[in-house]
Specification:
This protein is 73% helix and 1% strand. The protein has 13 helices and two strands.
């Protein structure tokens, strides 16, 4: 009996020790992920909720907030600058995203081509613009786009094209911003697509060649469907980036001429830091931008999503 009691007590003690070890392991796991959730709560979740509440008030940062309901949203619908910024956002999405994907795909195909020498050097050159800040890029392109004395204007003159006032003509300025944005972001697109192309099964390509498929059929019927998830990822982040343009536009044109390059984030900055008692307007416009980005991203994911199997 005593031996049975001792064995049972030993078993219960082992169970308590095992349970304690499991609890410690679980606690360690929670401690490892705690910094992320703490930072997420402080810098993302709290400002997000506070911004939504601020959108229904007047003031709120340097003065006591006054609840005004939907008045900020009503004022935004009547502000012509908001309508122009929304139109500019559509223009940027329709020009920057397709151009970046097209140019990035061309560069990725060149990098992965078996005849290309020193692909690493070419990859580094394409990626280099991403290392510069948006303000520095805007300063550089400000000199490139100068009328008459700019490099681009000089090259166009050699081709017999009249000088274009890229930064002062309301019709040309949005395209100048699009060109700058494509140049600045095509490096990331190229690297991601280059990695995706390397993941395409060579056996499938060889089998298609045996069946008589040529270069275009290989690309559009084999390669492109297999890298569609990557194209979806680049389309979504490219759309979000185009809708959130700010630093390059602010330095290059300041939103002008005649608000032709004004962005939504630029208006948010102007309402929040350049106008008095407009923090609520800035918060409301931020909420509107959020409500624009989420459905567009979901629609893109729905349209481009597909199950791809080898």
């Amino acid at each position: 009996m005593n031996s049975m009691k001792r064995s049972s007590s030993r078993t219960s003690r082992q169970r308590r020790i095992t349970l304690t070890m499991r609890q410690r392991s679980r606690l360690n796991s929670y401690l490892f992920i705690a910094p992320f959730y703490i930072l997420f709560f402080i810098f993302i979740l709290v400002p997000f909720v506070w911004g939504i509440g601020l959108s229904f008030t007047r003031g709120g940062i340097l003065s006591a907030p006054v609840f005004i309901g939907l008045d900020n949203y009503r004022r935004l619908t009547q502000d012509f600058r908001v309508r122009i910024a929304l139109g500019n956002a559509v223009h940027y999405v329709l020009t920057i995203v397709p151009a970046s994907l097209t140019v990035g795909m061309i560069f990725a195909l060149l990098i992965n081509h078996r005849w290309t020498k020193w692909p690493g050097v070419f990859r580094a050159i394409v990626f280099f613009p991403l290392l510069a800040s948006g303000a520095a890029i805007a300063q550089i392109w400000g000199y490139i786009l100068l009328p008459r004395y700019g490099i681009l204007s000089y090259l166009l003159t050699l081709l017999g094209i009249p000088d274009i006032k890229w930064l002062t003509d309301p019709a040309a300025a949005p395209f100048a911003v699009s060109i700058l944005s494509v140049w600045a972001g095509v490096g990331l697109v190229t690297l991601v697509l280059s990695a995706a192309l390397k993941g395409v099964s060579q056996d499938l390509l060889d089998a298609a060649r045996i069946d008589g498929a040529d270069g275009l059929n290989l690309f559009f019927r084999i390669t492109l469907p297999l890298i569609r998830p990557v194209m979806l990822f680049l389309t979504v982040i490219g759309t979000i980036g185009a809708l959130q343009l700010f630093d390059t536009v602010y330095v290059l044109t300041g939103g002008g001429p005649e608000y032709s390059t004004q962005t939504i984030v630029g208006l948010i900055y102007g309402f929040a830091f350049q106008s008095r008692q407009s923090e609520g307007l800035a918060a409301a416009l931020g909420v509107i931008l959020f409500l624009i980005i989420v459905p567009i991203s979901l629609i893109q994911m729905r349209l481009l999503r597909s199950n791809v199997e080898y």
